[in-house]
Amino acid sequence: MDAFSWQRADDIDAAIAAAQQPGAAFIGGGTNLLDLMKGGVAHPLKLIDITRIAALGNIETLPDGGLRIGALVRNSDAANHALIRTRYPLLTQALLAGASPQLRNMATVGGNLMQRTRCAYFYDTAFAQCNKRAPGSGCAAREGFNRMHAILGASAQCVAVNPSDMSVALAALDATVQVRGPRGARAIPIAQFHRLPAEHADQDTTLAPGELITSVDLPPPAFSDHTHYLKLRDRASYAFALVSVAVALQLDGQRVRAARIALGGVAHKPWRASRAEQHLTGHTLEAATLRSAAAAELAQAQPLSGNAFKVELAQRAIVRAAMLAAGSPVTGTSVTGEHA
Fold this sequence. Notes:
Blueprint: E1 5-8, H1 12-18, E2 24-27, H2 33-38, E3 46-49, E4 59-61, E5 67-70, H3 75-80, H4 82-87, H5 89-97, H6 101-106, H7 109-114, H8 120-123, H9 166-172, E6 176-181, E7 184-189, H10 190-193, E8 212-218, E9 226-232, E10 243-252, E11 255-264, E12 271-272, H11 274-280, H12 287-298, H13 309-326
Parallel strand pairs: 1-3, 2-3
Antiparallel strand pairs: 4-5, 5-8, 6-7, 6-8, 9-10, 10-11, 11-12
Helix pairs in contact: 5-9, 11-12, 12-13
Keywords: FAD, Flavoprotein, Oxidoreductase
Pfam family, one: FAD_binding_5
GO molecular function, one term: carboxylate reductase activity
């Protein structure tokens, strides 16, 4: 690990002022940043400790009936907060699917949004080709071991996936990320917060230098009754998703009045499944309709040599998660008609 300086900020303004120094980085729980520093992937010259800023640690109701979650709220506290469990159960499910209890006790909501891909070629500096770590060097994963990598929204520059479970639920819930920086405050819709790789694979988010996440705002609850977060992975806990799906439905009987679907483990950012949502809205929730909606979403997939299985897996996951959200039996609801 490289040498670095450390400074504690007592309020938001002090943190932002300190972050204007080149090479500065904010640190909260540090569950991802410290690993990157130890591995020689991240090289901050200065760490700004924001853990004592009380204004970032609250959960409060907004005037419109929505909810504001401070950037320093621990993942475990957010998952178990009464208002989140009752009004936004999808977020609770996603948070509890991530990491381990010990990590959730340390990790913050803001840090979860900022965590970086777990692509092995990014983490292992022995591999010179990684456009995310060294722009212009190439992408070793494209022709290497790419079982865990993207099938949607990738580019020649990068095929890494976003690892966050929480962010998938936030995408389905249309959350807004509140940030402050040297130019003032701004609100970033979650759909615009994370980037697709395009030509700048090293940039994961749309944050400007020196900007600090202050909170995540959720709109008034409209999808509390029919939600499900499904995470498919190699082992039952402490593993990143091969594919995950966040589904939230509004139903009139078996008719879908509105649908919100987001996918994880398949793209450089949480992938909002807008095509699937459009196919479901206004239709009866039945297996054939779900299979058609899932197939429409994954028709744009571009799998790599080692992850073509994700295309069907994602379709099956959408079908299963939607049926579970609706409280319907899942038997016979897979893509091929077999058990999902």
